[in-house]
Specification:
- By secondary structure, the chain is mainly alpha-helical.
- It has one domain.
- It is built from 4 helices and no strands.
- Helix 1 runs antiparallel to helix 2 and helix 3 packs antiparallel against helix 4.
- The termini are close together.
- The relative contact order is 0.18.
């Protein structure tokens, strides 16, 4: 299960950092071809803050979690559980605030897989 957890965490880290960075660099969403109407809330004026949260919390969080898992740190399993829960919360909020798209289902499935794999790593 450890190699699977490493692969999931690495994929989620790269995906979140790349997506978050693109949203911060182009807060109008044009780098990801996201129209402003995609976000169904006025909570954020543009995509900058969601991009920052995505990059910092999920991207860097998963990068650190992956390093902990690779190094077999004592807290790797607990960190992976927290990251898996965080990923599922992120997607749940995203589903509420945006239009649905296929990547949400994939990321939610990977978050759930991370939770399952983390239970075996502890």
């Amino acid at each position: 299960m450890r190699p699977l957890l490493i692969a999931v965490q690495a994929f989620l880290a790269v995906n979140a950092m790349a997506g978050g960075l693109m949203l911060m660099l182009a807060p109008d969403g044009n780098l990801l071809q996201l129209p402003p109407s995609f976000m169904r809330t006025r909570l954020f004026p543009d995509y900058f803050w969601p991009g920052l949260i995505l990059f910092a919390v999920l991207g860097l969080g998963h990068a650190i979690g992956c390093m902990l898992t690779v190094r077999r740190a004592a807290i790797a399993g607990r960190a992976a559980i927290g990251l898996g829960i965080g990923t599922l919360i992120w997607i749940a909020v995203q589903v509420l605030l945006t239009d649905l798209f296929w990547l949400q289902a994939l990321i939610a499935a990977l978050g759930a897989l991370e939770l399952l794999a983390a239970r075996r790593v502890r």
